[in-house]
């Protein structure tokens, strides 16, 4: 089963917190800004978080995409399955777009470990690292990132 998840449409900017809240299917949050303390002052970061997603018998929680102005990115998530006979695997890939909707680049496919079910089902924390052309960083509208997921 494949599901295209368009999770990052701009809906509301919370000026006091400096955080953008997003509405889509599913709801997500995104942020942009300088890198954490201790990192190079010229390194900028854009990030997005998907809350809870479902594909078939599988669930993803707190999927987090981080891209940096140096052309590096990281994906992480927690996944589990409610029912499997052969061990489910969550697959995610991403497409990054400009504000105008121009496709800049893709990342992934990232695959979870083979998951077993149970009561309660075990949770699997996993992720992946990728690189992209740093010249594309400023053009990325993190709110338009699309996650494609299968399980």
Topology:
Elements: E1 2-6, E2 9-14, E3 19-23, E4 28-34, E5 44-55, E6 58-68, E7 72-81, E8 91-97, E9 103-111, E10 124-131, E11 146-150
Antiparallel strand pairs: 1-11, 2-3, 3-4, 4-5, 5-6, 6-7, 7-10, 8-9, 8-11
**Number of DSSP helical runs:** 0
Structure class: mainly beta
Order of helices and strands: EEEEEEEEEEE
In total, the number of strands is 11
Helix content percent band:
under 10%
The residue-averaged pLDDT reads 80
Largest sheet: 7 strands, antiparallel
Strand order of the largest sheet: 2-3-4-5-6-7-10
Query: How large is the share of residues in beta strands?
Result: over 45%
Oligomerization category of the chains in this entry: single chain
Low-confidence stretches: 1-27
Described by the principal axes of the CA atoms, the overall outline is: elongated
Tell me the radius of gyration: 16 Å
Instruction: Give the termini distance in whole angstroms.
Output: 7 Å
Explain what this protein looks like in three dimensions.
- The protein is mainly beta and 151 residues long.
- It has no helices and eleven strands.
- The chain has a seven-stranded antiparallel beta sheet with strand order 2-3-4-5-6-7-10, with no helix packed on it.
- The termini are close together.
